[in-house]
Amino acid sequence: MQIDAPWLTDDASQAVCRMLTDAGHQVYFVGGCVRNALLGAPVSDLDVSTDARPEDVLTLADAAGLKAIPTGIDHGTVTVVADGKPFEITTFRRDVETDGRRAVVAFSTDMADDARRRDFTMNALYAAPDGTVLDPVGQGLDDLAARKVRFIDDADMRIKEDYLRILRFFRFHAWYGNTDAGIDAEALAACADNVEGIVTLSRERIGQEMVKLLSAPDPAPALASFAACGGLMQALPGAGAGALAPLVHLEQAIELAPDPMLRLAAIGGQDAADALRLSKAQTRQLAIYQDFTPPQVTAYRHGAQIGRGMLALQNAVAGQEIAPDAVVAVEAAAGQVMPVTAQDFMPKLQGAALGAALADAEDRWIASGFTLTKDQLIG
User: I need a labelling partner for 143 at 20 to 30 A (CA). Which of 67, 92, 133, 374 fits?
Assistant: First the structure.
């Protein structure tokens, strides 16, 4: 099998490959870029695997006139930049020791060693510079075709190497799994057996995976399985299987762009921002949804998209259908412009008094359904 993707055949990719092959080294693209190319999905990160040691990669890049950054040199990773495009080049590795959070690795010259330490069979696919796809594990291509997310070799062992793989399993199932075919039973059992290991992970790592899972086109089925095995409660205390009902209703209400913060608000958990170490921007957006402001007010203050999300959220929590005129009202509210400004109260009012008058006028205008006129608000 071969792939023929623009990112593979462009000058930058081929220059990076020649840098290594001209020196007699093996070089393969690996992981997500290969998986997504085979699925016809967008590719963002380009990961390269080689038998060249990291210090050799640095030397070869310099000789080829390419910028090289030792981003993770202790673990075998060097970032090489060609035509402004970053390539994460990592030496073949094998695990020497793991503790559920991090691994001690040794470099290898064997691709099979490198493949066996990866998490899922669909992520252990390699592509040569000419696009030829290699499947060292022997199950990756079949599992990818079937959209089956399967751990490499023993699921329990893979999870104990890094408990984050529990969250990654459900995230990958949400993005790439065949929901109709169901979830891999062996993997689900192994996740359930090791679910308490999630609490040993940093909240940042948990949060990053949860946001990625919640960004999937339809995360509800995977989240239901995650909750059923006890993982959701460990990752997000206070959110169990019962918390998913509003999420399911939310996704069926009106057409919405995938919004992880909206979905997180539907699941619940007032301490989610801290529990998942969300960014400041994510925390602000989550707080908007958690405030439960009337949807029209939300749309006026934050735009139509967030207003529609608030409308869907409030109806989902209440278990109610959304009236078509409610959607129209929310979208209309997003385009409203306050009919009075500070100038209309000056010079009679200044400072704090001016601010209070403006706030009062806006409150009355919103309460009227945006119908009060300028004269009515000033008078």
Answer: 92
